[in-house]
Amino acid sequence: MKLRILWMYHDLMDLYGDKGNIQVLKTRAAKRGIDVTVDTCGIGESRDISAYDIFFLGGGADREQGLIFEDLIARRGGIEAAMKSGTAFLLICGGYQMFGKYYKDQDGKTVPCLDFFDYYTEATDRDHRCIGNIAIEVTMDNETFQAVGFENHGGQTKGVSTPLGRVLKGHGNEYRSPYEGFVNDQVTATYMHGPLLPKNPRIADLVLQRGLRHAGENAVLEPLDDTYETKARETMLERMGIKK
Ligand code: GLN
Predict the structure, then answer these.
(1) If you average pLDDT over residues 42-70, what whole number do you get?
(2) Does residue 15's CB lie within 6 angstroms of at least one atom of ligand 1?
(3) What angle do CA 99, 52, 148 make, to 5 degrees?
(4) DSSP per residue over 50-98, as a string?
(5) Could you confirm whether 93 is annotated as catalytic?
(6) What is the pLDDT of residue 199?
(7) From the CB of 114, is ligand 1 less than 6 Å away?
(8) What integer pLDDT is reported at residue 170 of this predicted model?
């Protein structure tokens, strides 16, 4: 079994350990005997995006979003082809915002985004920045479970029709929002850094499964020993007062 991962703007879009998500995808795939390759893609580099099974884009501050948006928009056709071909997308924070209509920063400057979905993001004032640990109840691919992470964003994302989860603690899409992230059959998008996947291996496996489907494999992934991952997540849920 082979799995190809594309890590977009690895040198610019990487906050609060986002690169750890790549490490987890690689490790969990390799433990199942899957032959994984990870290619990076920086500004100006040419890649056939639909040839990849998983597309990963991490978070970035306003500055980095300002640096990548033109290059990203120039790839819109390739990204659309990848969506049509069934590539799985994992998008974090600034990366999540870039798939909506636009991002309006704190100075009122609008950064155009890919406009694949109806949501859009506008920065708020300092008093309403969403910072801290976050816990959500995820519903994805007919599974419902708790996930934890860390968020730090000024952007308030509005108009999300299909959120990734319900906020148990923290903010999510907007300051004190009941909902967090965005999900559809292919795209998993979230404000959760931390990084996301080490503490939430179920999300990792669902993304891997989606990627494997694109690779033509309908394999059910064998379970791994997630004792430490579970302990880390449960410790955070306890600290947030969700689990005793
Ligand atoms: N610049 C965006 C915001 O503050 C994204 C930040 C991030 O990726 N953590 O909303």
Answers:
(1) 97
(2) yes
(3) 55
(4) GG-SEEEE----HHHHHHHHHHHHHTHHHHHHHHHHT-EEEEETHHHHT
(5) yes
(6) 96
(7) no
(8) 98
223 CA distance to ligand 1 centroid (A)?
A: 34
The answer to whether residue 244 scores a pLDDT higher than 80 is no
What digits encode the pLDDT tens for the residues 142-155? 999 999 999 999 99
CA of 140 from ligand 1 middle (Å) equals 24
- State the pLDDT at residue 243: 82
Residue 119's pLDDT band (boundaries 50, 70, 90)?
very high
Cα–Cα distance measured from residue 154 to residue 121, given in angstroms and rounded to the nearest whole number: 9
**Ligand 1 site, residue 155, Cβ cutoff 6 A:** yes
Best probe residue, ligand 1, of 91, 97, 126, 171 (max atoms within 8 Å of C-beta): 97
- Given strand 88-92, what is the order of strands in its sheet? 35-41, 2-8, 54-57, 88-92, 187-190, 182-183
138, β-bridge pairs? 145, 165
Which carries the bigger pLDDT value, residue 73 or residue 218?
73
Q: Are 133 and 150 in contact (CB under 8 A)?
A: yes
User: Best of 56, 57, 62 to mutate for ligand 1, by most ligand atoms within 8 A of CB?
Assistant: 62
